[in-house]
Design a protein that fits this description.
This protein is α+β, with helices and mostly antiparallel strands. The protein contains eleven helices and 15 strands. The structure holds adenosine-5'-diphosphate.
Length: 517
């Protein structure tokens, strides 16, 4: 209940409020409000000031929070992000906040640091790229094969030589486990050592060693020397990978075999005449008194013949080794008729003794060829000597020389030379081997004097003339050896018309018309 009444101090407003609790009436609260304007005004003022202070505090708190968010938290967040990016290797990171004061300085320094890091990074990348390019060029040009593996035996890098030796396609093996792609013979030898190296065992401690000599039958039948090396980290502590170096030693192996074969052949060939000479001289020395004059003469003749054979063999070996060395020979313009005629003159007597006709068939006005006179003389001597040796009395041996039509028309001109006989001929299965050193058909068939080196010398000399020697032969009919020599390109030496001829004449019992040398 509200009631107003007048008091000597002015009007008073009474407010009565009944007080109840749990349905029980407890009493009445009576409040009298003094209407004194001074008191009211002062209480209003107090209330207004309190509200103003409260609002200003809140406004300041809100303003402070906004300022904090704009001026401190945002730059710090940006800085944090920037540092994270730099740590992740993104050196392009910059912070773009126009701030002054200490935070502004911090941002400036951060940007400078990022710029420096970026330039170092670019420099490093350039250097690394250059180093990588150098290494790749080196890898691709070295004669040895190179394969790089990681510690899980996966192929990281291969060079063309390794790809060729192992018959790999580069893309096919990259990233593959090496043991899946190695040829079987290599895999068998390398599996264990590779595992040992990958587990950190140093190469020199490997039980089987870190160097292997392996023959790869497929695809090219090559012999290789393989070297395994571990790639260590910069502190040389832990294994980072395995480097495999592959050297193709096929040629070395072949040369060694050929050398041993040659030495064993020479010793064998030398031993036979030496043994013969020794035994005949010993017999003469010990039993000379009991031998007749005829026997003594026969023994001496045999010893003499054997000495000749020995001298021939030694000369042939020396000739061949001189030809096979890198000795430089002088090549001039040679009138081919001259060494041919000289050879025929030398063999004339021998041919007459054996009843063999010598034939010279040289096209008139042949141009000079590029050659070495002495070497060509040796070729004709060896071929003519063989012709006479393997032809029976009544047979013929001929030398022909004629110009070939150049092919193509403006190409170099050649003179073809053929040495033919009507002798025993050479079985097709022996035709390839007769040019090998010490190969003699008569080792199996008959025994005629010879060293088995004559045709090797011929082949070598003709190869020195940038040409090849060929043969056409039929057993019982005869043999023709032929080769081409290059005409010296000199206008004045060119004859009127070249003869058109591309294949050598087949050996026949009818050789060209005889022109006695
Ligand atoms: P050799 O000094 O033994 O004659 P070569 O190298 O000159 O050695 O010849 C090798 C072999 O080739 C001879 O042993 C012979 O079997 C065969 N041969 C060479 N020329 C002829 C030929 N004109 N007719 C038949 N066989 C030949």
């Amino acid at each position: 209940m509200v009631r107003q009444h007048l008091t000597p101090d002015g009007e008073v407003t009474d407010v009565f409020v009944p007080l109840n609790h749990d349905g029980k009436y407890l009493g009445v609260l009576a409040i009298g409000i003094n209407p004194n304007p001074t008191v009211v005004t002062s209480s209003h003022l107090t209330r207004d000031v309190t509200i103003a202070v409260f609002i200003s505090i809140w406004a300041m708190v809100i303003l402070g929070a906004v300022f904090n968010a704009l001026m401190i938290t945002k730059p710090i967040k940006e800085l944090l992000l920037g540092v994270k990016n730099i740590a992740a290797g993104n050196f392009k990171q910059r912070i773009d906040l126009p701030l002054g004061g200490e935070l502004g300085e911090l941002i400036l320094n951060f940007n400078e640091m990022a710029e420096r890091l970026e330039s170092y990074d670019e420099q490093n990348i350039e250097e690394l790229t250059a180093e990588k390019a150098k290494l790749e060029t080196l890898m691709s040009t070295i004669a040895d094969g190179a394969v790089l593996l990681d510690t899980n035996m996966r192929v990281i890098l291969t060079n063309p030589t390794a790809q060729r030796i192992f018959g790999w396609d580069a893309h096919q093996v990259d990233g593959q486990n090496i043991l899946y792609v190695l040829p079987d013979s290599v895999k068998i030898e390398l599996t264990r050592p590779l595992y040992q190296l990958a587990s950190g065992q140093p190469p020199h401690e490997l039980k089987d060693g870190a160097e292997f000599r392996i023959t790869i039958p497929e695809p090219t039948n090559r012999t290789v020397r393989i070297l395994l090396t571990t790639v260590l980290d910069q502190y040389r502590e832990s294994v980072k990978g395995i480097a495999i170096t592959v050297q193709d030693i096929t040629r070395e192996v072949e040369l060694n075999e050929a050398k041993s074969q040659f030495i064993s052949n020479v010793s064998h060939e030398l031993r036979t005449p030496l043994f013969n000479i020794k035994s005949f001289i010993e017999t003469l020395h010990e039993y000379g008194d009991s031998l007749s004059e005829l026997e003594k003469r026969e023994f001496l003749e045999t010893a003499n013949r054997e000495t000749d054979r020995l001298a021939r063999l030694v000369n042939d070996v020396l000739d061949l080794s001189r030809l096979e060395s890198n000795k430089r020979y002088q090549f001039d313009a040679v009138e081919i008729t001259q060494p041919i005629e000289q050879t025929l003159r030398t063999h004339q007597l021998n041919a007459r003794d054996k009843g063999i006709e010598l034939i010279q068939d040289i096209e008139p006005n042949l141009p000079p060829v590029r050659g070495n006179y002495d070497l060509l003389l040796q070729v004709f001597t060896n071929l003519m000597g063989n012709g006479l040796k393997f032809t029976s009395p009544g047979g013929k041996v001929a030398i022909r020389a004629y110009r070939l039509e150049p092919e193509p028309v403006d190409g170099p001109c050649h003179v073809r030379v053929e040495v033919s006989d009507t002798g025993i001929g050479i079985d097709p299965e022996d035709q390839k081997a007769i040019f090998d050193r010490f190969f003699r058909v008569e080792n199996r068939v008959h025994t005629l004097e010879g060293t088995g080196l004559g045709l090797s010398i011929v082949r070598n000399i003709i190869e020195k003339h940038q040409s090849e020697v060929h043969l056409v032969s039929e057993v019982g009919i005869g043999t023709t050896f032929w080769f081409d020599l290059t005409v010296v390109p000199e206008k004045s030496a060119l004859p009127d018309q070249p003869v058109s001829q591309t294949a050598p004449s087949k050996p026949t019992s009818e050789l060209p018309a005889s022109t006695s040398p």
